[in-house]
Amino acid sequence: MSLRPTRLLPILPVLFLSLLAPQAPALAQEDSHLQLEHYLDWEFVNSPQLSPDGSQVIYTREWIDKINDRHA
Predict the structure, then answer these.
(1) Does the residue 19 lie in any domain?
(2) CA distance 1 to 37
């Protein structure tokens, strides 16, 4: 007995969901809270200014100096 493609159509969503089910608990356990380590890795963009001809944007970068505990 051979399976026709039309007979497989109702089975495809079930197969797709069964592939995703084992991964769902792993995704739910991901910690989404902001930690100090995350904040210390951020970089900030300040003082954006356009060049006189408007072709470039000039800005300053700021980050946290972890060793000296200050903005750099």
Answers:
(1) no
(2) 60
